[in-house]
Design brief:
The chain is built from 23 helices and three strands. The protein is mainly alpha-helical and 587 residues long. It has three domains: 111 residues, no CATH class; 127 residues, no CATH class; 267 residues, no CATH class. A three-stranded mixed beta sheet has the order 1-3-2, with helices on one face. Helix 4 packs antiparallel against helix 5, helix 13 crosses helix 14 and helix 17 packs across helix 21. The protein is globular, with a radius of gyration of 24 Å. It starts with 7 loop residues before the first helix and ends with a helix.
């Protein structure tokens, strides 16, 4: 983590100070900052209307984010001015809770400013997300009123301009040699082609017009369907035709022949920054690589012990191959796979009170990943709930090719993406009280993903992993995150090839070829992000072990989890300080 002028220890002091009455001068300073946070939150929603829509804020539902070069430069200028303004405040005059708000807000602002010169914003899409799949935004929106549909049609009409801005960004990326490798971008043309249909009613963007609430009059329904069809026919489909031609004729040929961020301008420096940003530490790529190798060796020993336990007589590689190919470990149909996930979630949910004092009020649901994106994405992911609780959190599972989705991985995956993983943590953060809005939606990846990986290990406390193959599945997922440290740094820092990364995966995990290739391609397209999981989990485990040792019989796992979760996502060194303060209070 970058030093922001004051040490975290000096900033936080004791958490008990948060409960003290504030002197008038402090109240004034705190109010100034709270007003600043509120104003900047409104700016964020206005400048990122699709983010606002995801949160359930309807005010900007008729527009896309302005991704023109001028708008991006303007936002950067604003961030620099904001950082300069933050530097004029003296956090030493704030209470502990207000200092934490200040620290986190300044951290985010400073990170934005530091990342800008590397111009990664010239890469607006990859094979997993981007303008080729913007229709999926509709899945997180509510279409209850005529105005909801009018807003969507407004977005459809604005889509060609949004596409032109995206193409302009990507052309600049070609010029500055800031592009993705060909190997991952070759997946995108087929994704674009799915948007080029003969009739507008066949478009994925027409989905909200296929079914209306009964409260909307038939005449309005017909008018809205007609307007949407015209907008799609005259704007959306031609925009995708233009994009397909640009992508195949200009962009793809200009993409990188090899993999790795080291090829980009200032690539080594860029990747080192990404390591610091995603892990919220000052670990170097070489240090992270070494941690990964050590974790791979440790987990491999545990996996080999299970191989002996189940009586498999062959080599470890033969054991992995048997797991990949033995049909008893797989469902035959997507419906069976979905029902298997539903059954797991129903079994886990009632056990949570064993480990947690506080559970979120916002529920979660389980849905299949949309078919048009399923072949190119990972086994599952989570979508956060709406800010006002009007939309539940969603655990999306991949039902594409169920014969490649092993049963023994389903428990660990569900614990990670739903509860006690992403949904429990993110929903609790959404429900935080007496904090600025930005605190509820802060996404420090090392904390968020570190918690979810830590949650997988909680399965044993929740009655999971009773079958040795299921325990092997949990170790496979933990190995997967350890291997990430090795292959991500390998490709982006040590100039490894894609084939080398795939080989390390196959040597150490029982994941199927489909998952391995999709995962490696994800790391290629998203430098550094995959490092956050294992680094975050290791820190949480370290803090738990320290707490157990220091408190002995006084250690309460539910209280420890409350300390870790009650402030929402924070950098790892801030989390460590919060736990240290709790331990001081307990001893």
């Amino acid at each position: 983590m970058r030093v922001l002028g004051l040490s975290i220890l000096a900033l936080l002091l004791t958490m008990t100070a948060a409960a003290q009455d504030k002197p008038a001068a402090e109240l004034s300073l705190a109010q100034q900052l709270n007003d600043l946070y509120a104003a900047e939150w409104e700016t964020t929603l206005r400048e990122a209307p699709t983010f606002a829509s995801h949160l359930g804020d309807l005010r900007y539902n008729d527009r896309w984010t302005d991704v023109s070069l001028d708008a991006i430069a303007r936002r950067h200028t604003h961030q620099k001015e904001l950082l300069a303004k933050l530097n004029t405040f003296d956090p030493g005059k704030l209470t502990a809770s207000d200092r934490l708000n200040y620290l986190l807000f300044k951290h985010q602002t400073a990170t934005d400013v530091e990342e800008y010169p590397f111009r990664w914003w010239l890469v607006p899409l990859n094979q997993r997300e981007g303008i080729q799949d913007e229709n999926s935004l509709a899945d997180s929106l509510r279409f209850d009123k005529v105005q909801d549909h009018e807003d969507w049609i407004g977005r459809l009409r604005a889509f060609p301009a949004y596409m032109d801005q995206t193409i302009e960004l990507m052309r600049r990326g070609i010029k500055e040699r800031i592009v993705q490798p060909k190997i991952v971008m070759r997946r995108v043309p087929d994704q674009i082609r799915r948007q080029i249909v003969e009739q507008p009613e066949e478009s994925l963007y027409y989905k909200p017009l296929k079914k209306f609430p009964s409260e909307i009059a038939p005449a309005d329904q017909e008018r809205l369907k007609g307007a949407a069809a015209v907008a799609i026919k005259d704007g959306v489909i031609p925009a995708y035709r233009k994009f397909h031609a640009f992508f195949t004729e200009e962009y793809l040929p200009a993409c990188l022949d090899q993999v790795g961020a080291w090829q980009l301008p200032r690539g080594e420096e860029f990747y080192a920054l990404r390591c610091r940003v995603f892990t919220t530490t000052r670990l170097t790529p070489d240090e992270i690589h070494a941690i990964g190798l050590a974790e791979v060796a440790r987990i491999r020993a545990e996996m080999e012990a299970i191989q002996k336990k189940v009586g498999f007589q062959g080599t470890f590689q033969q054991f992995l191959e048997s797991l990949r190919t033995d049909k008893r470990h797989y469902y035959e149909t997507p419906e069976e796979l979905l029902n298997g996930y539903l059954s797991l979630c129903k079994r886990i949910d009632p056990q949570l009170t064993k480990l947690f004092r506080k559970l979120p009020r916002i529920p979660y649901g389980l849905e299949p990943i949309p078919q048009h994106m399923a072949p190119d994405t990972t086994a599952a992911y989570y979508r956060q709930p709406a800010a006002d609780g009007s939309r539940a959190g969603t655990y999306f599972v991949n039902l594409y090719r169920p014969e490649m989705r092993p049963k023994y991985e389903m428990e660990a995956l569900s614990l990670h993406e739903s509860v006690p993983g992403h949904h429990l943590q993110i929903a609790l953060a959404t429900e935080l009280e007496n904090v600025p809005q930005f605190r509820k939606f802060t996404g420090f990846t090392a904390y968020v993903e570190g918690w979810a990986l830590y949650a997988e290990r909680l399965g044993e406390d929740l009655g999971c992993y009773e079958d040795p193959y299921s325990k092997f599945g949990q170790l496979t997922y933990e190995m997967w995150r350890a291997v990430r440290l090795v292959v991500d740094t390998g490709m982006h820092h040590k100039h490894w090839t894609r084939e080398q990364a795939i080989a390390v995966f196959k040597e150490n995990t029982a994941k199927t070829d489909l998952d391995i290739v999709n995962e490696v391609d994800r790391y290629i397209a998203w430098p550094g992000q995959a490092l956050a999981y294992k680094i975050g989990e290791l820190k949480i485990r370290e803090l738990r072990a320290k707490s157990e040792k220091q408190l002995g019989e006084k250690f309460d796992i539910r209280e420890f989890h409350d300390v870790v979760l009650r402030n929402g996502a924070v950098p790892l060194d801030v989390l460590e300080q919060l736990v240290e303060e709790w331990l001081k209070e307990k001893t």
